Backbone:
């Protein structure tokens, strides 16, 4: 048991390091292609940092299908948008207030409303479709059609992203391969290998992570779905959290929030489509609750943003919503009489 916990922690660290390697390469790819901060944040950085959450359910379903695979997969799929829309945005709000109180940045949010509102709208629509499909999951035809719809939503989203291109953002931190071999951060021969190396690390880490979750589930007699719903997103979304907090400190609020909202769109399309098509997509009460909370929080942010009243305090409320929902999920899973 102790060995499995140690392996789990080391695996999480490995996933985060590989994700950072991948994200750094993706950001430089965006810089090399001269794309705007909105596109880099909502598409390139978001997709890069969303890969761990995406690959864990894929690995779980393909490699561990006979032993908790579907539970781990569904938990990871549902846990990602839930945590992004609550805890991750909540931490952004808390960071905004802390940096303001310490005098390290100005008050309020300095964001491109068009970028964030667009992301929230696409997420709400796609995730509502996904949750609604769970009520008709006995029909394979319905699931396959909805999976196809969710996949097609993302190219349409990309069309809108590139349609509203803006100015090219500032250069990110130096490419890691450039720091080691001095090959130049803008060289494609350095950017592409770093992206592939990060992707390979994330995939291997995802396999070990699912294996550890399976072992802990058996040892503690806790459903694998609950473990993956809570533990998996905490670890795999660390890149989004870290990147967003650093961007907030640097007054790059569009990059910070776009990194999260762009990941929301990606997570509600490809991973969810994979789950809808490749599992029975029967969601228990706790998983559905996490989905309803994610959609509700995103809708609240969208309405406040449309009314130009969104403040750091509203974002910070997401952390409270996350804690309350996790408590409710754990309570619902307790055996009768406890």
Residues:
């Amino acid at each position: 048991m102790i060995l499995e916990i140690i392996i789990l922690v080391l695996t999480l660290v490995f996933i985060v390091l590989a994700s950072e390697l991948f994200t750094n390469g993706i950001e430089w790819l965006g810089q090399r292609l001269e794309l705007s901060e909105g596109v880099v944040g909502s598409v390139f950085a978001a997709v890069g940092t969303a890969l761990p959450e995406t690959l864990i359910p894929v690995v779980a379903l393909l490699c561990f299908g006979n032993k908790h695979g579907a539970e781990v997969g569904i938990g990871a799929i549902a846990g990602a948008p839930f945590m992004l829309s609550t805890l991750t945005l909540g931490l952004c709000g808390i960071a905004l207030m802390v940096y303001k109180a310490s005098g390290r940045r100005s008050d309020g949010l300095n964001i491109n409303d068009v970028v964030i509102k667009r992301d929230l709208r696409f997420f709400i629509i796609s995730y509502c479709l996904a949750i609604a499909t769970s009520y008709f999951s006995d029909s394979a035809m319905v699931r396959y059609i909805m999976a196809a719809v969710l996949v097609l939503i993302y190219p349409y989203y990309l069309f809108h992203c590139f349609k509203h291109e803006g100015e090219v953002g500032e250069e990110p931190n130096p490419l890691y391969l450039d720091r080691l071999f001095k090959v130049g951060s803008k060289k494609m021969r350095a950017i592409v290998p770093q992206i592939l190396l990060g992707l390979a690390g994330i995939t291997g880490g995802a396999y070990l992570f699912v294996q550890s979750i399976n072992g802990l589930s058996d040892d503690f007699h806790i459903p694998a779905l609950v473990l993956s719903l809570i533990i998996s997103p905490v670890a795999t979304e660390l890149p989004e959290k870290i990147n967003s907090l650093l961007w907030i400190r640097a007054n790059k609020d569009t990059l910070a929030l776009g990194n999260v909202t762009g990941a929301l769109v990606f997570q509600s399309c490809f991973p969810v489509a994979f789950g809808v098509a490749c599992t029975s997509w029967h969601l228990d009460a706790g998983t559905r609750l996490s989905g309803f909370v994610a959609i509700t929080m995103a809708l609240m942010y969208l309405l406040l943003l449309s009314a130009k009243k969104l403040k750091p305090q509203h974002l910070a409320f997401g952390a409270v919503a996350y804690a309350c929902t996790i408590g409710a999920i754990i309570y619902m899973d307790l055996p009768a009489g406890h």
About this structure: The CA atoms of residues 300 and 314 lie 9 Å apart. Residues 69-101 form the longest helix (33 residues). The chain has one domain: 2-333. The chain has a mean pLDDT of 82.
